[in-house]
Structures are given as structure tokens and as C-alpha cells.
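ingest -> validate -> predict -> emit
validate: passed (alphabet ok, no gaps, 438 aa)
predict: started
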Amino acid sequence: MRKNLVNVDRQLLRWFIPGLGIKRWLVLMIAGMALIGLGIGYVQVQIYRQVEVPDFFYYLTLQFLDRWIRAILVGGAGLIAFLVGFTFFYRSIIRTAQGNDSRPILDKLWEQHIAVGKPKIVAIGGGHGLSVLLRGLKQYTTNITAIVTVADDGGSSGRLRRELGVLPPGDFRMCIAALADDESLVTQLFQYRFGGGNGLSGHSFGNLFIAAMAELTGSFERAVVESSKVMAIKGRIVPSTLQDVTLCAELRELTPPTSGVSADPARTAVRGESSIGKTGYPIERVWLEPHDPQAFPDAVRAILDADAVVIGPGSLFTSVMPNLLVTGITQAIKQSRARRIYVANVATERGETDKFTLSDHIKALEQHIGRGIIDTVIANNAVPAEFKPPSGVDMVLAEESLQGGTARVITANVSDSEQPWRHDPQKLARTIMALIPE
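emit:
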């Protein structure tokens, strides 16, 4: 009981934190209550003077005590009544109004207040890499805009895309879950994947939810907004384009040598994000069909207004590059005054970036979007001595030769201690925040 009272007292005191924009209205409310009490007092005094009242009113109004003592007693009782009423008001009304978000309203008011002075960060990518980044960034700022690829055509997203004609919801679902409360039961439900059932096997609840919301609201972008509200996320998520695009790739393969003639490279085109990387042939370049899709306006505005634009981590050709192939997105990055950061993958990806060094990642990026766009590269510099990468995977570490390039290379320990071939959300976010001027 005592512990509960202490918690209530602490919650009440937090309402008086400077800058929330609450105290001024609370003072006005108390002043109004005082004026109402004064008005009632005038009426009572007038009645007391003109109307004969029973003798017990003498004791009821404490007239046997000095006026200063009466004022202290009555004022103290009024203050206690106000605090008790405010406490129960807070419990029964404000907490009820918070909806699916389990956090108290005061926490959200405070986050909204401090967000004014926090950096505006745009994260561009898709897949698991983007969700890892967002999971770390949300600890530092709520001014986050995630720009997500719509080129996914595999798994549950691909099935919904083909059967319902919606944009692929999978990457959006992962970003929503990453920016929500990780421990929330609603978040776990959003990520739940059906293991069986006629037609449900392989689908995640969040994908179905977003697809259903798109039907109800009439647009995919509105579905993402409403789904984000349900999950009470920190930040917002937007597509790079609303057009139905297909990712294509040109692969390089070696033709069998004939007698006395060396092998010549041949090129093969592959359509569909889910097909790229499965052939085993190196990827020469990727492009979108239809060419030059229109960028989503909110994504462009977010980039132009950002303090930092973070590209990656994630699958280089199938998660990161599809966003940058939208011309409007790349042009906005060029025009933005934000710090433009590329987060290099910690390890290569089988079938996509086999044997790639850090230089190879940057060259592929510049080949598609041009040189000079990225001003900072974050590369991992820590690999446990006893760690052996999975078969076919190489660690991507910083190279001294890049120090003289156009982009500044920042080396840091950003790998996960348990899975060194992946990024650690907190380490990565801490490194990025250190690069953004206040």
C-alpha cells in the first residue's frame, strides 16, 4: 500500500516538470476554483448576516478558532480534496483515454515535449536491417521517418500483393513493430506468423492487418498511418513510392570456355526481388520497372527537413537500393543539408554480396546513385577472436584505403555480441547519434 502511494506521489510530481505546457493551465484552473469558492463565500456571509441560523453553525464554521487557524484548516482540507480528486481523475479518465498504448499519458506528453529539440532522422532501407536500426534510434528520438521499399514480392507479402493488389506490407510491419513497445503483447501479436490453416500458413497477423486496413481506408499509405496509431509507434513510416514496381537485376555469368578461347562474361536479366540472389551469379546492376516511379511526397519532405539521412543497413541490392532507384528520393538526398550516412553491412549476404569488401559496397552504391552523395560511412571494426562466420559469409571491415576517399569512414564496434554478423541496435544508434550535431 505504501509503495503504491509513493508511486502515485511521484506520478503527480511529474506533472510539474518544466516545459510540458500543463502548469499554466493548472494554475488557471486553480485560480478559477478559488474565485468560485470566493463567490460562494460572499453568498454564505450575506446569508449568515441576514438569516437566523441554528447555534451549531457556530461550531460547524469553527468560529471558536482564530481566523488564521480556520484559514489553514479549511485551505489544507481543500488542497487534500483537490489532490485526491486529481489522482482519481488521472487514473479513471486519462489512463482510459490512452487506448492500446500501455504507457501513461504523461510519458507521451513528455516525449512530445522533448521531441521538439531532438534531431530529425530519416532511415532508408527495408527488411531486418532497417528494423534493427529503428529499434535503436527510438531510444534517442521520436523524430524518425522510415522510408521503406515496396519492391518485395516474396513470402506473405508477395502473396498478398498478387492476390489483393496491395503494396507489400511485410517491411512496413517489421518497422511498425520496431518503433512500438517491444514488450507489448500487441506488438507480439502484430509479429505473429500463422503456422497452419487453409490459406493462412506463412502469413503474419500484421501483414493481414495492414492489408485489411488498406481495404477499409481505401489507400495503402493511410493503412500504414492507422496501423501505426494502433501500435502507438515512436516516429512514422512511409513508402518510397506508391507505384507497383518490380525490381530487376542484371547478373554476370561466365560462359563455358571453348577450345583455346577464354571464358567470356554473359549477362542475364532477372525479374522480381525474391528471384535475385538465388542464381549464384554476381549482380551487375539493378533497376525498377516501370522506370522512374514517382517518389512519395511525404518521403521527399522528410529528407529535405532532416538533420540526418541514414542509408542502410540491409540487403544492399534488394532492400536498400530499391528506395534509391526512385529518382525523387535520390534527388532529395542530394539537395538535403542533412548529414548523409551510409551504414555498411557487418557481413556479406549469400547470393547477393558474396566476397564484397567495404569498397565494393560503396562502389555499388555510387554506381547506382552517383558519387558524392554519401558524406559519412559507418563500418564495423570488431569481430570476436573466436567467432567463425557462417558458411559463405565474410565479415565486412573498414579499409585503410578508404580514409582518403570522398566519404569519411567512421569505425566502431557496432556488431551484436551474440550474432556478430548482425548489427547491435543500441551500439549502432549510439554511433549515429554521436555524428549528428545538436
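The chain has two domains: 2-106, 117-150+240-435.
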